[in-house]
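Run folding on both entries below.
>entry_1
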Amino acid sequence: MWRRVAVVLAALIAGAGLVTGAAVAALRLTAPPERTGLMRDAQAGVTATLPQGWSTGAVAPVTGFTSVVRDGRGALVMARPVPGPVGDVRKATAEAAELYSRLLLMGDRVSVVDDRRTADGHTRALRAEYKDVVNRPAFLRVMLVTRTDRSVLLVGLLQPEDESRRQALDEVMASVR
């Protein structure tokens, strides 16, 4: 009788071990990767850390930009080098924000929601609202990163605007080095 109990007990322990091992393996295989992605743009000379769910794109949707990252739900950040020196960083950022607002937002009402100096340049954010019932508000952030050897223009677009996704977009743009 003790032999039978020992065999059944050993079988139960082995079965529990197999179930535990399979569960651990399944959780590891289905869990999202812990490591975030990285965007590298050799032409612009920048790298950016990407949050989970963001990935690099093959071609930027706007001519002149050398890299693009997307979250797959309507957010993107594009980068391009700026030729020549930038005299007035604030003015250049405002002009770029105006240009890309007309090209990408085309809102019925566009307002500036953020305009400030950063540690290495300037940033301006715009919010577009639409009169029609189809389009929801959109968000555009333009950031000019100035360096001694070259400057870089970053354009972030979010359609539709959402606070948590806006934070992720700002996080990507702030991570540019």
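>entry_2
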Amino acid sequence: MKSNPHENKEPALKRFYKPDHFLVKSDYNPVSCLWEIFQNFSLEDFRREINHWQNMALSNDHSAYDEGNAREDLIDFIQLLQRLIEAFHIINERQNASRKLRLIKGFSRKMKTVISQINQPILLTNKEKEDPCLAVNLFCKAFEKSYVRIELLDLLGAVTSYEGVKSAYTVNPVMFYQHIHYLTRLAYSMAK
């Protein structure tokens, strides 16, 4: 007896779709992705990894940073990038305050204290902490969008081609790059 080819057929897989990736979600609600970004990397994770990337880039003999002016530009860029990330952290905290409370509800008091202590902005002024959009706008005024795109790619290139004695942090560099790149794109769309 022949079976009907349409019976017991499993549903076809949806191809070329990644529903769980934060970049897919960014298409329909860009600011909502902040929650996922800061779930993937804490503010302290961002600080540590960006500083590590800067150290590898400055130590790499085969990167876009072999001239003094390029190294100086990178240092200034990283400083404002760190401030931009702190600003987005504050925006995320305010936008998702109730969501965060639900998440940490069952944590001990000690754990809540530890979490809050490691995720404090340290580079922003008090005025920028009150209005983090000031830091977002400052970043966008300091750098052309095309410069940011190229600088981030040069930085990624320096990190992935680094062969020195500094060990690479365990974060996937492409995934980390996607998060930083998204935050910079969001900055320019907010600054319009």
